[in-house]
Amino acid sequence: MYCCQELAVVFALCVGRGVLASQLCLTGDFAAQAQQLMDSQTMTSQHPNVTRLLDDLRATLNKRWQEFDLIIYGSIPIGLGTKLSDVDCFVRIPNYNVTEHRHIVEQSVDLLRRQPNLYSDVHVVDITDNDNNVYFTFYHIPTQRHVDTVFTTTGALDNSNLLSYLFRLDKLYLPLGRLIKYWCAVHELSALETMDKLPNYAWYIMTVFYLQQKRLAPSVYELQRHSESATVLHGWDMSFEPIPYAARNNESLYQLLGGFFQYYSQFHFQNYIISPFAGRPIHRSDFIHYDRIPYEFTAYKNLMANNGSCCQIELNTDFCIQNIFEHVYNVANLISHEEAFTILSHIKWAAEMYEELPSDRFLTTILSPVHQVMESNEVNDTVDGSFNNCIDVSDLV
């Protein structure tokens, strides 16, 4: 079941003569507006809240272990964190005994629970039958931040390192990713991996893939070819070599953002896989037949040959967005047909606004919350004369 029907979206602009406390009123041209927005919302690894959180966690775990590293991964080190972003933390203990994994997680939880002035909602998360996948979460009271903490290596850490490299190939890539993330948040198009939404990770992939189509970023396959040694996790090569890459971007942030919506408003989601590893769209049928699997996917072919149909990417979905390193996973496999329609309607409407509105009106228009989505070819874009270029930043979580 694929997406073929267009939905129209009725948007409400941020109007009214008064300005709410949660509103941010943007001034100047598009570049100035984007900078004001990012200055108000961006969270980096150097933020005092992140430093405070790591210092507290390190001091707490030091009561049991003297030697370990705390490594932040996910949106914050990639450069796409917001002021309300959760923190993902990897605790690397030397000579880690994986057979004691569950016991170590439970010991850590006990240490945190002894300091109720610092931590609340501390609990073990056990969502699989594999003890090695157990981790713990908590809420850090001083910084008001939720934290997921793992002790075993996951693919998320490698994904984080790769995306951090790709988003820094040009000075405009991180701003582009941030604006797309804000847009997703306002319209509730992204959420946790277990919900009927595209995870933020999927939107990061879509952003990188869009840049790859413009020859502004290398394929992951190309980066792996330059790697001197493989780092294998669950049968997948997670290595890459951050080679010098001349992006040669001549477009402004405004043009890159508008181009993102234009590209995906015309993308044939029903026929093609978004593959950042290959760096190009791949027809779904190529992953059905073993002899048609593209040459870049040696590990996938080996897995398929040894395990059969149990280890193939899920293709019977509206969107097929391939995991960067573990190519058997479609990171969009949980979204419903209705949610896929909604996402496409937002993309198409944003592309229309890029083509129709002056640049200084584009950003606040697409960041205005949706009032209604309906199956129609009409879009109500009537603007009240009191339009004031303000957005509700409480939506940008």
Known CATH architecture of the largest domain: Orthogonal Bundle
The helix content is 25-40%
User: How do the strands line up in the largest sheet?
Assistant: 4-6-9-8-7
Distance between the termini: 31 Å
SSE ordering? EEHEHEHEEHEEEHHEEHHEEHEEHHHEE
CATH top level class name of the largest domain? Mainly Alpha
Structural class: alpha+beta
The tally of beta strands, per DSSP, is 17
Number of domains: 2
Number of helices: 12
**CATH fold name of the largest domain:** Poly(a)-polymerase, middle domain
Q: Spans of 5+ residues with little confidence (pLDDT < 50)?
A: 1-21, 376-386
Largest sheet: 5 strands, mixed
**What's the alpha carbon Rg, rounded to whole Å?**
22 Å
- What is the average of the pLDDT values? 87
Approximate shape: globular
Sheet-strand content, in percent, reads 15-25%
Tell me about this structure.
This is Poly(A) RNA polymerase mitochondrial-like central palm domain-containing protein. With 397 residues, the chain is of the alpha+beta class. It has two domains: 1-43 and 171-397, Orthogonal Bundle (Poly(a)-polymerase, middle domain); 48-155, Beta Polymerase, domain 2 (2-Layer Sandwich). Helices cover 35% and strands 16% of the residues. It contains twelve helices and 17 strands. It has a five-stranded mixed beta sheet with strand order 4-6-9-8-7, with helices on both faces. Strands 1-16 form a two-stranded antiparallel sheet. Strands 2-17 form a two-stranded antiparallel ribbon. β14 (272-275) and β15 (280-283) form a beta hairpin. α6 packs across α7 and α9 (253-265) packs across α11.
